[in-house]
Amino acid sequence: MAAADAPAGENTGTPGTHNTHAGTDGFTSGEQSKGVKGTRAAVIVGGNRIPFARTGGAYVKSSNQDMLTAALDGLIARFGLQDERIGEVAAGAVLKHSRDFNLTREAVLGSALSPETPAYDLQQACATGLETVLGLANKIKLGQIESAIAGGVDSASDAPIAVSEGLREILLDLNRAKTSVQKLKVLARIRPKDLAPDAPNTGEPRTGLSMGEHQALTTAQWKISREAQDELAFNSHRNLAAAYERGFFEDLITPYRGLNRDSNLRADTTLEKLSTLKPVFGRNLGSEATMTAGNSTPLTDGAATVLLATEEWADSRGLPKLATVLDGEAAAVDFVHGKDGLLMAPVFAVPRLLARHGLTLEDFDFFEIHEAFAGTVLSTLAAWEDEDFGRTRLGLDGALGKVDRTKLNINGSSLAAGHPFAATGGRIVASLAKMLHDKGAVDGRPARGLISVCAAGGQGVVAILEAA
Amino acid sequence: MSKPQPVILGELPSLSKLYMNAAATAARRRIMGSSAGQATLPAVSHEVKGVQADVANLTAYQHLLGETASDILPAGFVHALAFPVSMSVMNRDDFPLPLLGMIHLRNHVEQLVPIQFTEALDIRSWSENLSGHRVGTQVDVITEVRSSSSGELLWRGISTYLAKGVFLPGIDKPGNSSGSGDNGNFSPPDPTALWQLDLDIGRSYAAVSGDFNPIHLSVLSAKALGLRGSIAHGMYLASRALADVGAVKSDAFIWDVTFEAPVFLPARVALDISTIQAETGAWQRSDYVAWNPRSGRRHFRGSVAPLS
After folding, report:
1. Do A73 and B68 touch (CB under 8 A)?
2. A240 and A115 housed in the same domain
3. How many angstroms separate the CA atoms of A420 and A143, rounded?
4. Same domain, A189 and A99
5. What's the rounded Cα separation, in Å, for the pair A38 and A27?
6. Which residues have a Cβ under 8 Å from the Cβ of A310 and sit 6 or more positions away?
7. CB spacing of B69 vs A63 below 8 angstroms
8. What is the tens place of the pLDDT at every residue in A390-421?
């Protein structure tokens, strides 16, 4: 628990002193843009998502398959992929019905893509969407496929509800019973409590704490103030609203079911309004509760997709090349016994990824840190700025460094847009790819962006994209 | 035929009231003797303006039929949306054929332009081509769906119905009627799909289409109308085949179906969809045929083809 005692938020002023600089470990800049030496580049052609809706809203009757297909069909229409055989499609959902075992393939079959397009499902909690991008990008880099669609979808409105464990066992036994007498005996075992349905929740199986309660522990540990969290939430709404105003999402979103903007967005919210909300997480932790419905993401429905390809594939169809997928890294933490916070795995993934490419936080033009909670982002930044934590936990000479806040989530993030778990990765990748393309080159190198997504189970996936 | 005179209805007629009225008319005609006898169709069209699809109902329809849940109305959904208007034409006192017990022989749909669910629609319906059939009298009910804002024709349907056992003066039986369901030389191909239709599929389709015709709802209500059990809606079967054809049909297409032996519920229905491609690989047409896998009797057949 060394981190708990460290002064949170202290800036050592010497960020990145431990790191070697780009180009000193054998990468030339040309090879760097292709990720791993000797492989070809995986480029992001573009993305499409449907607006995210607060649970019980516009997509209340829409299934995961409906929304994923809608996002896919929007992507197909945008890039003229009707009847095209794509190398592979990968997507997933966190809250998934057992009947949706082939969710992505079913969405492909319902879409305008060629039915000869293979697909697979992937699930890594909230990192699902980003992991589909990384996995498919690797296949492209290795020469296995020329094109791919990555994505994710989630519905909190149409969540699966299972029968209780007791009833499930009885029903299975009933199926095995042969005679009427045996069947009656099995049925007689049913008790009223067995009939209570088993709805999914965001609780961690090993700790019994909800994700919000876990984050409340981390937020308190890093001494993140209520004001700082509300300010981050305010910026998220303000930035997202501004991005809509200047038409940033026009080639990233297709309306669905009458919705053309994320319904969680409160363009008119103020710091005063946010400060009046009552805390909802961490009320029994002893220290002051700071996490409200305003600085935590709400349950949301939505889907997002990203089109990936080789440069040749994009060129031959006259399609844009927004950015390349440079590399990615996954990490996990021991949150079960409180060594680290549940959502702090990206804190460890990023330094490893940066070291592999000889980069520091100063070498990035955009940071996309998924806002599961405002406290998650701020705890992550605090850990990276903490010298003691950098030395003892990250194995560095000092603090990892400081994220320039003017480069952080500049077009809004999950606090404003909402967070349909598996869809968030696709939202971030497509938006960042566009931002990088618009930025172009910085000091003679391609504009560069860092993505960080935390996930349930104490996991995290991070990635680097570069302007193509 | 001269252009039918338009009658504007204030709102979509209630199908349940239409069926009640049709039942009352049938009973009255039975007691009072048939008032039918005139062999002309009413020279009017019925129109409802500004009709809008209900999004929850659209989603339920798409889920039931296996359609992709896009914002575009499936062609069969438009048929269901417009059905009360065409029913109201057939329910007029001066309509020469009894509405209850009519058999849907054929359906032809031209989907000219994709229709967004948010679009306000003007729906107009009238009847044409009263003609003789081997076993009764048939009629075409034409329905046109236009954009309320632009007036553009988006969807056009022709439903051909048969009043079995009704023969009107001056209308001759044809020598060789079309659509008579000649099953003589049908040998079933290998199926591409096998549908398991439960007893409640009639009620499920009634719930999403609004078509609560008693012959589809339960064994009892069907028996009351002289059938040996409830039967699947023809448009349910045809719309499901259309959904199975899938996205290949693109934006503008013609969709035809000819109904033959009814599907008594519950049932297993075998289906074959064959795709006809040009030498370039471009889609030319999808033909479908469905039959009873046990008896080999054909239930319906049809095709989906691009609208050129």
Report:
1. yes
2. no
3. 32
4. no
5. 11
6. A40, A41, A42, A43, A140, A146, A147
7. yes
8. 999 999 999 999 999 999 999 999 999 999 99
